[in-house]
UniProtKB/TrEMBL annotation:
SUPFAM superfamilies: SNF-like
Chief location: membrane
Domain of life (superkingdom): Archaea
Protein name: Sodium-dependent transporter
Membrane topology of this protein: Multi-pass membrane protein
Membrane-spanning ranges: 7-28, 40-65, 86-110, 139-161, 173-196, 216-236, 248-270, 276-293, 300-321, 341-361, 368-387, 407-430
PANTHER family: TRANSPORTER
Amino acid sequence: MSQRETWATRVGFILAAVGSAVGLGNVWQFPFQTGANGGAAFIVVYLAAVFLIGFPAMLAEFVIGRRAERNPIDAFARLGHRDWRVVGVLGTLSAFWILAFYSVVGGWVIRYIVGSATGAYFSGSEAYFGAIAAGPDAVGLHAVFMALTVGVVALGVTDGIERSTKLMVPSIVLLLGGLAVWAVTLDGGGAGYAYYLSPDIDTLVANIGSILPAAVGQAFFTLSLGMGAMLTYASYLGRDDSLPADGATIVVLNTFVGLLAGLVVFPILFSLGIEPGSGGLGAAFITLAGAFAQLPAGRLLGVVFFVVLLLAALSSAISLLEVVTAYLVDNTDRSRSTLAVALGAAIFALGVPSAFGLPILSWYNAIAYNLLLPLSVLCLLLFVGWVDTDDAVAELRRGTGLGEGGAVAWLWFVRTVVPLGVLVTLLLGLQSLAV
Ligand code: PHE
Ligand code: NA
């Protein structure tokens, strides 16, 4: 078997991981989750969830991946615990499942770039979404998005993923930053900043039961945890840089992009008197497109915004495809490109039903979000916290100045606070699936 690939540079790994993290979850879901959960009050809980629960959990994935230098399934066997491979299977299947409908949404984004340029949705945003979100056209664009994803993964870890994310991630930050600066000039946008940036403690306390699971779920999704994506990316490290330092950089950059997206979305909506409320998967598209239609230079703004969204979605989708591809690359003699194409085709097929109706897509999403993701994160945490303990602590400290105490503090987080947070989210999420 040929030599396993590794990242060419440390920055390359960090940007690839940020690319995985920054996705539809930040730019599209986060502002609207915030809107649905009482504005800034939600953000406070979300930030706590990201740093206290998401960050330690990300380090747990890194520790397994870097030490095992294998895909999520074989990683557990390599670390001497064959029985735990089922956790890797769960993560890998989750990646497969999520990419299936994530790609359908990616297809919508491509459509909205074109629709912005031509002004196609300017005469009726809701009707436009209804027309494009489901049906043969949605399937076609799902295929296009999947083909782009396959193209990058087929080129390999360094030549495909590392190279492309090195371009995509800085572009996302620059374009989104430009939009945020432009948004400052909007009349009446001030109410948006107030809503977004000044937490209302009463709202927070009154709704903590729904805010907490939403915030924790969002933290996991946005950090790409539970699907083996971060584990797989860390398996290509082959170097001794500090995992906590790299992880912190990734978490901070991802949070920064999410907050930046809010600084674009909220002033736009409030300047037009639009409530950012809830409303499911399609609402963000309908609401935002409706806003662009009313703004001067709305076409240009729409194109830029949806290009950002496409880059974000693509850099996440490749990490999902890489999880599944890595398993076969590690275990067969076929070429990476053949495997990526075959897997892309299979995942495309799985996603087709969700391109035929929004309720189906929402159902795919709910399964992933409320069941697969928390369950898989929970198992991973139990493994690192209670089974692979000593080796995990040593691996975390490798290449760092981190003392024994710091590593043990992390371990206790991974043993207690983090799984408890996940468990609560899982139970509340299951409850929402049942109703
Ligand atoms: N983090 C991505 C987002 O915010 C989604 C994702 C989840 C990507 C899991 C890869 C793995 O959109
Ligand atoms: Na991304």
